[in-house]
Write a structure and sequence with these properties.
The chain has about 90 residues and is mainly alpha-helical. It has four helices and no strands. Helix 1 packs parallel to helix 2 and helix 3 runs parallel beside helix 4. It comes from Helcococcus kunzii ATCC 51366.
Length: about 90
Amino acid sequence: MSDKKFRATPAARKYAREYGISIAEVKGSGAKGRVHEDDVIEYKLHGQVKISPLAARIAEIEGLNVQVLEGTGPQGKIMKEDVMNLLHGGKK
């Protein structure tokens, strides 16, 4: 399916094109699922994992695999508390 059938900002489309990312693979955070540039950047950095910048930084420092976490934030986003729970032996 063509990327033109997915709602995305021009900036998101440009960034995705530059990095060879299909807009179809990126979950949009905008109205009606519209993909914004930040969504594409997050996808590039973390694959399909939605994670807050602070949680991502803590996980990187601690060498954690965020793929095993279930986020408790909006739309399943991994938050700092989720990473801290994993670090302290809490639930995944």
